[in-house]
């Protein structure tokens, strides 16, 4: 995670630099207002019919014929690049003249004949801001506890308050007085650049300090960088990049108002871009966290140089394509790692903690992509001619950009919903919950997976329809056609429809829930999960049944409320039945008082009486009422205790015997013994089939 964060610094800042400096370098001087008389004369001239006819003859009509061939497009592009570079080169000889004119403007309209006035005012404002910030930091330090000093959220809050105080004090002090317009613009622009520079440095410092994760919340946060040398390296590079970026933006935006031409403003922006380029190449080759292979370093260096050259040549399409191809993957990894570290430090629990974690992690990545898409949309609106050649292409590109935003929103909604559903599904019932609360909890765990699947289908359908509508597709006929197609599918797949509808009615009837043991026909087992058309049953011996709802039929739920288990024991005819009844009652009371079984016993074990007189035994019938699923353990313990008590008190458990006599009765006795053994085997198989 540390390497991901480190690699994420440089590309993001390079993007910001190119975005800001590019916009500022192309800024032109405001055109002078046209006198109303001349504008009126121009409009009257355009309304002349003869002039209209002459213009129609001179201007060729627009046709739908194909445009230029590829070779002609390349030649046109090459000519445009040559013209642009030629204009920039022609601006170099004009630098002394424009510099002299700008010096006169500064001396007359800015400094008012007092050299250094701008720098003096700026120094005073910065001093005032630092003084106010120092006072606030001292006040906060008195109330800031040791725990707060280790908490990332508290540190960010205090740093934000301090920087906001600096900005308000310095900018407010300047705005409190009246200043000439040009001087006001220069001071505010430079002050804004300085404030933004401090914000970048503070953000980098906090990220270095709190970017790591720790397993113990009470421990001090693990620093993002293990060595002080690594921290110094990245702080210095981040400061350089921020300085070139922000002050280059400020100067490139100010010099057109001082009399410099647009080409000179572009040259200044390109020079600051060279500073960023040099810093980026230095990071590629000198970063302390591992330089990587020579091929990778060479490729990154060449990519940065090509991007700067594309900017100079005015190839905006190539520029932004290369920027986002180079930056977005690294930026997403770095921002995602930082967001995961911040989310891991969150001490919030419960549903709110789940929501915050998803918003921090997924929201951070979505914010990076949304910012890239927003910038592309901005470039498209301003530089449409450099990206496409027709209105249809522009409409499609805009629709695709909007579609990406819609996908990001849909992904965030789905991740939030899925995380909340998983949280409530895995939430264990609280200790001491009542039977009604346990029932509601089980029903919730049963219905939530089905709701999650339905919600996924709904979000996907709405997202696709919204994107298609943004691309200009008429979705009403599509919806109508989907309805007709759905009806046809319904007739063709009646079994599937039957399964889905049966599942809906099973859920409405609350026939079974996740974790309950059910039996339906030849299927039985514990309900593990649901889908829209089937239920998964885990047999007590291990196999899993995936049963469509339409095949379940009548469902026998063995996990609701209570269960009565009938137990039969055969004793010999010479046994004392009354003594056996007393012994069984005593055993039932002991089991009901046993802490292991007391909570699960509803009615203790007791003998109901003699069930029947068998061929070789008196069959005694017993009854046990317990909570569902617990009767097996109590029954096994009861049978062990009954056997031991009967043996101590001379009560014999009857077993089939074979008495062989000579003569014709031998075959009959053998046949009777065989039948008895078969019955015993069947009874043992039935007992062994219980969980």
From TrEMBL:
<feature type="transmembrane region" description="Helical">
    <location>
        <begin position="236"/>
        <end position="255"/>
    </location>
</feature>
<feature type="transmembrane region" description="Helical">
    <location>
        <begin position="297"/>
        <end position="313"/>
    </location>
</feature>
<feature type="transmembrane region" description="Helical">
    <location>
        <begin position="450"/>
        <end position="469"/>
    </location>
</feature>
<feature type="signal peptide">
    <location>
        <begin position="1"/>
        <end position="27"/>
    </location>
</feature>
<feature type="transmembrane region" description="Helical">
    <location>
        <begin position="267"/>
        <end position="285"/>
    </location>
</feature>
<keyword id="KW-1003">Cell membrane</keyword>
<feature type="transmembrane region" description="Helical">
    <location>
        <begin position="117"/>
        <end position="136"/>
    </location>
</feature>
<comment type="similarity">
    <text>Belongs to the MscS (TC 1.A.23) family.</text>
</comment>
<dbReference type="InterPro" id="IPR011014">
    <property type="entry name" value="MscS_channel_TM-2"/>
</dbReference>
<dbReference type="InterPro" id="IPR011066">
    <property type="entry name" value="MscS_channel_C_sf"/>
</dbReference>
<keyword id="KW-0812">Transmembrane</keyword>
<keyword id="KW-0732">Signal</keyword>
<keyword id="KW-0472">Membrane</keyword>
<dbReference type="InterPro" id="IPR049278">
    <property type="entry name" value="MS_channel_C"/>
</dbReference>
<protein>
    <submittedName>
        <fullName>Small-conductance mechanosensitive channel</fullName>
    </submittedName>
</protein>
<dbReference type="InterPro" id="IPR045276">
    <property type="entry name" value="YbiO_bact"/>
</dbReference>
<feature type="transmembrane region" description="Helical">
    <location>
        <begin position="475"/>
        <end position="497"/>
    </location>
</feature>
<feature type="transmembrane region" description="Helical">
    <location>
        <begin position="182"/>
        <end position="200"/>
    </location>
</feature>
<dbReference type="Pfam" id="PF21082">
    <property type="entry name" value="MS_channel_3rd"/>
</dbReference>
<dbReference type="InterPro" id="IPR006685">
    <property type="entry name" value="MscS_channel_2nd"/>
</dbReference>
<feature type="transmembrane region" description="Helical">
    <location>
        <begin position="354"/>
        <end position="375"/>
    </location>
</feature>
<feature type="domain" description="Mechanosensitive ion channel MscS C-terminal">
    <location>
        <begin position="566"/>
        <end position="653"/>
    </location>
</feature>
<feature type="transmembrane region" description="Helical">
    <location>
        <begin position="156"/>
        <end position="176"/>
    </location>
</feature>
<feature type="transmembrane region" description="Helical">
    <location>
        <begin position="395"/>
        <end position="414"/>
    </location>
</feature>
<dbReference type="Pfam" id="PF00924">
    <property type="entry name" value="MS_channel_2nd"/>
</dbReference>
<feature type="domain" description="Mechanosensitive ion channel MscS">
    <location>
        <begin position="495"/>
        <end position="560"/>
    </location>
</feature>
<dbReference type="InterPro" id="IPR010920">
    <property type="entry name" value="LSM_dom_sf"/>
</dbReference>
<dbReference type="InterPro" id="IPR023408">
    <property type="entry name" value="MscS_beta-dom_sf"/>
</dbReference>
<keyword id="KW-1133">Transmembrane helix</keyword>
């Amino acid at each position: 995670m540390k390497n991901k964060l480190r690699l994420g610094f440089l590309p993001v800042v390079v993007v910001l630099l190119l975005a800001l400096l590019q916009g500022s370098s192309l800024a032109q001087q405001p055109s002078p207002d046209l006198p109303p008389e001349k504008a009126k004369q121009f409009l009257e001239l355009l309304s002349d019919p003869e002039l209209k006819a002459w213009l129609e003859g001179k201007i060729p009509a627009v046709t739908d014929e194909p445009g230029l061939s590829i070779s002609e497009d390349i030649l046109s592009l090459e000519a445009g690049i040559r013209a642009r570079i030629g204009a920039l080169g022609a601006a170099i000889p004009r630098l002394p003249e424009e510099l002299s004119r700008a010096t006169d403007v500064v001396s007359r309209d800015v400094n008012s004949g007092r050299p250094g006035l701008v720098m003096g005012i700026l120094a005073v404002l910065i001093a005032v801001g630092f003084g106010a910030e120092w006072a606030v930091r001292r006040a906060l330090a008195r109330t800031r506890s040791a725990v707060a000093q280790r908490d990332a959220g508290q540190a960010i809050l205090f740093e934000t308050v301090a920087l906001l105080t600096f900005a308000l004090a310095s900018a407010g002090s300047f705005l409190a007085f009246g200043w000439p317009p040009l001087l006001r613009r220069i001071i505010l622009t430079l002050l804004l650049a300085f404030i933004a520079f401090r914000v970048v440095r503070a953000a980098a410092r906090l990220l270095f300090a709190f970017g790591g994760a720790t397993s113990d919340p009470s421990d001090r946060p693990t620093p993002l960088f293990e060595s002080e040398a690594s921290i110094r390296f990245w702080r210095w590079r981040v400061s350089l990049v921020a300085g070139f970026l922000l002050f280059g933006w400020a100067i490139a935006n100010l010099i057109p108002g001082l009399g410099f031409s647009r080409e000179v403003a572009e040259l200044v922006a390109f020079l600051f871009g060279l500073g960023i380029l040099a810093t980026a190449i230095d990071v590629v080759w000198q970063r302390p966290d591992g330089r990587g292979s020579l091929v990778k370093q060479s490729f990154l260096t060449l990519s940065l140089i090509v991007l700067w050259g594309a900017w100079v040549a005015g190839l905006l399409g190539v520029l932004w394509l290369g920027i986002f191809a180079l930056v977005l993957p690294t930026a997403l990894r770095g921002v995602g790692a930082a967001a995961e570290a911040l989310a891991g430090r969150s001490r919030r629990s419960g549903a709110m903690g789940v929501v915050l974690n998803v918003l921090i992690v997924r929201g951070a990545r979505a914010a990076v992509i949304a910012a890239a898409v927003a910038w592309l949309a901005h470039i498209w609106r301003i530089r449409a001619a450099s990206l496409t050649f027709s209105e249809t292409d522009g409409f499609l590109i805009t629709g695709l950009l909007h579609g990406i935003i819609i996908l990001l929103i849909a992904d965030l909604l789905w991740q939030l919903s899925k995380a909340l559903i998983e949280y409530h599904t895995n939430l264990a019932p609280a200790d001491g919950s009542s039977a009604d609360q346990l029932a509601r909890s089980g029903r919730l765990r049963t219905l939530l997976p089905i709701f999650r699947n339905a919600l996924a289908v709904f979000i996907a359908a709405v997202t696709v329809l919204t994107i298609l509508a943004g691309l200009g597709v008429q979705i009403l006929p599509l919806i109508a056609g989907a309805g007709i197609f759905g009806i046809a599918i319904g007739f063709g797949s009646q079994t599937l429809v039957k399964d889905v509808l049966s599942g809906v009615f099973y859920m409405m009837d609350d026939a079974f829930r996740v974790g309950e043991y059910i039996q339906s026909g030849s299927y039985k087992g514990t309900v593990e999960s649901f889908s829209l058309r089937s239920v998964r049953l885990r047999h007590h011996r291990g196999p899993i049944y995936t049963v469509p709802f339409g095949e379940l039929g009548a469902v026998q739920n063995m996990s609701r409320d209570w269960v009565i288990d009938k137990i039969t024991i055969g004793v010999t005819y010479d046994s004392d039945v009354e003594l056996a009844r007393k012994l069984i009652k005593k055993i039932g009371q002991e089991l009901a008082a046993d802490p292991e079984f007391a909570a699960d016993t509803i009615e203790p074990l007791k003998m109901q009486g003699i069930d029947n007189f068998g061929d070789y035994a008196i069959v005694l019938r017993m009854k046990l009422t317990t909570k569902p699923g617990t009767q097996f353990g109590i029954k096994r313990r009861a049978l062990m205790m009954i056997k031991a008590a009967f043996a101590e008190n001379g009560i014999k458990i009857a077993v089939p015997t074979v008495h062989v006599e000579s003569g014709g009765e031998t075959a009959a006795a053998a046949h009777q013994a065989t039948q008895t053994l078969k019955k015993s085997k069947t009874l043992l198989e039935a007992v062994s089939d219980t969980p």
